[in-house]
Amino acid sequence: MSYVGLIDCNNFYVSCERLFDPSLDGKPVAVLSNNDGCIVARSNEVKKLGVPMGAPVFKYRDLVEKNKVHLFSSNYVLYGDISDRVMKIISSELPLVELYSIDEAFVGFEGISEERIAQLCEHIRTKILKWVGIPVSIGVGRTKTLAKVASNIAKKFDQLNGVHILKNDLLEEKALKWTSLDDIWGIGRQLSKRFNYLGVSTAYDFIQLSDYVVRKTGSIQSLRSKHELLGSSCFMLENQPPKRKSISSTRTFYHMVTDKEELTSRIANFSVRCAEKLRNEGICAYEVKVFIATNRNRTDLPQYYRSGFYRFISATHDTMLLSSTVSQLIDEIFVEGYHYKKAGVIVSDFIDKNILQMDLFTGNRMVKYDDLFTAWDHLSKTLGKETIRLGRQYKGDSSNEKRSPRYTTRWNDLLIIGDPS
Questions:
Q1: Which of 27, 190, 303, 324 is the most exposed place for a label (fewest CB within 10 A)?
Q2: DSSP state of 87
Q3: Cβ partners under 8 Å of residue 243, min gap 6
Q4: What is the pTM assigned to this prediction?
């Protein structure tokens, strides 16, 4: 029998913060979103306080202060580097690895016995904890969805020591009866409400439904999830991540913005980030879209949403060209009198830069600035993303005042042990 595993870092963002500050162990810790607006990661202690994922900080301010919750601004540079170290260890131990997210990886155990799988999982878990310091849970099942179920169980029960293998029908049935419907991979909270009306509350209830009812109530994705829970693989392991359809950089502003010049400069940051992502992946984009939106939660203010779109004759990853194009689009969609809360830039329709066909007018520009962007990206990577900036970029209030140091990627942030004197 062929098995699939899911290796999942426990409370990953929180674990990264605790990694360099052991005094946080056992204490309530939460990590905030961009602009410190919402809680995007919670320690088990914070979960027990009843703080939900994605909760706006201001709604739980009293609870946070009363229980002395340690709040951190998101430190994605640190999290990304720690994630890379974890994934390299996993890839060194197993030949088939699919990097699913920053803190999760699916793995294949083709041709490995059940006894050996258990030993290997324990070895990988121990190695990651020893070499990187991040605790992980590993779930194993006949399909990806069953592996996800097993991983959730491995997290919940300490006696499992972080590893749970659904190696027979009895364990599968017990796991499905324990698993809530909204915890099923591919179902989620909103879709589960539809099935709740049918008396379905667990994964086991879900697989008792006919294919027709599942498809009619949910979607083709729901039907695939059902068959995965029954042990029929619908989602194959992929060594290479699927090709992106788009790259985006969006932000909810800490304060609402009414000034056009400020809004344009803020959005310039997004276009610069999109260009960097394009170059990092060795691709160029034909299309760019920019959107601006007001705060839909402020019913006392007028609402407005608008987007602008442009298609280049020749695909590009040119920072300056993207930024100037986005600025022109903002001129077209901006309307005075509104309080803007969110904006973003999205690029799409990609082509590999090595096979890009140049046009008469912009082709020379790509060649001309190639060395410039190579140097730009090198300096951004080694000295920080804001080392080089466009004149139109926004540099105002910081929303990351609670961010921890970037211990592993900046010399000035290296951890000092003992008295430096």
A1: 190
A2: H
A3: 350
A4: 0.78
Q: What is the pLDDT of residues 260-318, one digit of tens each?
A: 999 999 999 999 999 999 998 889 999 999 999 999 888 899 999 999 999 998 889 99
Please check whether residue 136 is in contact with residue 128, taking contact to mean a CB–CB distance below 8 angstroms: yes
Tell the burial category of 382 from Cβ atoms under 10 Å away from its Cβ (0-12, 13-18, 19+): exposed
- Report how far residue 171's alpha carbon sits from residue 118's, in angstroms, rounded to the nearest whole number: 15
Cα–Cα distances (Å) from 206 to 182, 209, 215, 314, 420, in that order, read 11, 6, 12, 49, 60
Tens digit of each residue's pLDDT (9 = 90 or more) over 97-139: 999 999 999 999 988 888 899 999 999 999 999 999 999 999 9
305-316: strand order across its sheet:
246-257, 340-352, 283-294, 305-316
User: Who contacts 229 (Cβ-Cβ below 8 Å, separation ≥6)?
Assistant: 143, 145, 146, 149, 176, 184, 203, 206, 207
- 3-class secondary-structure state, position 207: helix
Question: What are phi and psi for residue 220, nearest 5 degrees?
Answer: -65, -30
Residues 32, 251, 286: CA angle, nearest 5 degrees: 135
Hey, what are 110's tokens?
A: 């083709």
Contact 73, 402 (CB under 8 A): yes
